């Protein structure tokens, strides 16, 4: 975690850097640096409370948003605003928004058709027209929330869906690589045309939209159907004919690996600040770690997230640890510890948690609260947050989950952790900061660098507590009488030097 710069608005010089103290404030980790001045009076300058607090908003089958494919434009917007306001209430800081459920688009695309789940008409734009992704980004950033665009790379259609595919859908563009397998139409990951199209779709979004991240979930090759192999024999034979010598399982894994590696490079070449993350199935292979028994994504989905971490092809990994804490065969803490041990390049680990099991399987809310605490207890090993699947329990406060999280693990705001391998350049500090009557004001950012403003309050113990994370477009905030510290924060989470004001 980077050390904050010295406070510019203080006139006294510092003789020495005193003590670095790790504190826990309402469960959120706060690093505090005590600076000793010439007079010997300690001045406490904080490093931020850092934790990735994400939630998946699933659009496929209208799981989370929109609640129906028959809503009007204004109803869709209102639902999304309600979701974001709930995220602010819960001190969540990252929306993982499903923009491509099945070769379709929740945004204005020249490459793929509008999603059926948006308007009930595959290939038809919302009417009156608006761009849901652009709207979601604008409203998220207004609230100081990151938006990570969530893509499914190969799924083409759920067979339970009744719509017909638009002419420009990838299954119609590449019918020779479209397979009817299980409950889905699926694209062949071994086909270069499919890989190129998926890559182009994602880079197009990175180029045209102000997303903070790109994410895949656990769907690579499809979950297998017992007794039925995925029908990519012709593609594999073409690979062998061209001189390829890998076995089919290794070839399949290589197809996925090449797309992951290519996207990591391509995304950062387009926009260096856009984060690339993947949320794989929570077990790499049965028996890893010892005692774990379960489905092997390495052998069945041909996904090798252990390799992606080792090679640094992701900025974060969010393994889906969708089991309870205690069962030994799929132990939440044992699996988390194993993933943390596979991270030689020190990328971030954000655990994926199955929040919806409080209503699908009767899990107590305390199970999810305790899982967050377990993840947080390993922050020194780069366990730096959680992503909840999905938004519906938070949206509807099922089983009082909102109240439980607000009163316990998410009682105070936090900012996403800094990815130091991407950028460490701090922005300029806020300008024009003034203390009014129960209000602090400052100038609008003119650089285009600021993503949020971080406001800290000095408590009775002379410790700075993060009390607000405000959107880039904010220039004032109502406060109680106290001493405050304001910092500008860029889109990578780097903080400026301090501006301190007292509201009396």
From TrEMBL:
Segments passing through the bilayer: 14-36
* InterPro entries named in the record: Divisome_Glycosyl_Hydrolase, GH, GHL10
Q: Does the keyword Membrane apply?
A: yes
Give the coiled coil ranges: none
Pinpoint the Glycosyl hydrolase-like domain residues. Answer: 51-355
List keywords of the entry alphabetically. Answer: Membrane, Signal, Transmembrane, Transmembrane helix
On the tree of life, the source organism's domain of life is Eukaryota
**SUPFAM superfamilies reported for this sequence:** (Trans)glycosidases (SSF51445)
Q: What is this protein called?
A: Hypp5987 protein
Source organism per entry reads Branchiostoma lanceolatum (Common lancelet)
């Amino acid at each position: 975690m980077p050390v904050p710069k010295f406070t510019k608005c203080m006139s006294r010089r510092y003789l020495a850097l005193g003590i670095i103290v790790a504190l826990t404030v309402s469960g959120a980790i706060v690093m505090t640096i005590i600076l000793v001045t010439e007079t010997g009076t300690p001045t406490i300058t904080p490093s931020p409370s850092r934790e990735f607090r994400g939630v998946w908003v699933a659009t496929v089958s209208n799981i989370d948003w929109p609640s129906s494919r028959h809503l009007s434009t204004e109803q869709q917007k209102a639902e999304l605003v309600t979701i974001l306001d709930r995220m602010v209430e819960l001190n969540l800081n990252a929306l993982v928004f499903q923009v491509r459920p099945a070769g379709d688009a929740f945004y204005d695309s020249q490459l793929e058709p509008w999603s059926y789940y948006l308007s009930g008409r595959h290939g038809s734009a919302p009417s009156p027209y608006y761009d849901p992704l652009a709207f979601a980004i604008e409203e998220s950033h207004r609230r100081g929330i990151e938006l990570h665009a969530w893509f499914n790379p190969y799924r083409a259609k759920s067979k339970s869906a009744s719509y017909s595919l638009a002419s420009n859908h990838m299954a119609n563009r590449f019918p020779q690589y479209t397979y009817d397998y299980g409950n889905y139409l699926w694209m062949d990951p071994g086909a270069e045309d499919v890989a190129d199209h998926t890559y182009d779709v994602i880079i197009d979004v990175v180029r045209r939209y102000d997303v903070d991240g790109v994410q895949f979930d656990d769907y690579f090759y499809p979950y297998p159907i017992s007794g039925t192999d995925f029908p990519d024999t012709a593609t594999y034979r073409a690979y062998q004919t061209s001189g390829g010598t890998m076995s089919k399982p290794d070839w399949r894994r290589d197809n996925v690996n090449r797309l992951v590696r290519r996207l990591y490079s391509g995304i950062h070449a387009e926009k260096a600040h856009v984060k690339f993350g993947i949320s794989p199935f929570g077990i790499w292979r049965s028996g890893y770690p010892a005692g774990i028994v379960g489905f092997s994504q390495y052998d069945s989905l041909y996904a090798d997230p252990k390799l992606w971490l080792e090679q640094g092809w992701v900025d974060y990994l969010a393994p889906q640890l969708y089991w309870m804490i205690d069962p030994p065969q799929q132990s939440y803490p044992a699996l988390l510890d194993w993933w943390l041990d596979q991270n030689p390049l020190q990328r971030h680990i954000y655990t994926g948690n199955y929040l919806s099991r409080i209503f699908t399987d009767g899990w107590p809310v305390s199970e999810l609260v305790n899982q967050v605490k377990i993840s947080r207890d390993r922050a020194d090993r780069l366990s730096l947050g959680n992503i909840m699947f999905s938004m519906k329990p938070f949206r509807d406060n099922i089983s009082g989950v909102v109240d439980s999280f607000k009163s316990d693990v998410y009682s105070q705001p936090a900012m996403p952790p800094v990815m130091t391998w991407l950028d460490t350049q701090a922005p300029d500090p806020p300008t024009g900061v003034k203390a009014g009557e129960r209000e602090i004001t400052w100038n609008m950012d003119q650089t285009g660098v600021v993503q949020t403003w971080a406001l800290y309050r000095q408590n009775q113990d002379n410790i700075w507590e993060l009390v607000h994370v405000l959107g880039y477009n904010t220039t004032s905030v109502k406060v109680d009488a106290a001493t405050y510290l304001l910092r500008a924060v860029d889109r990578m989470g780097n903080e400026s030097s301090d501006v301190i004001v007292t509201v009396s």
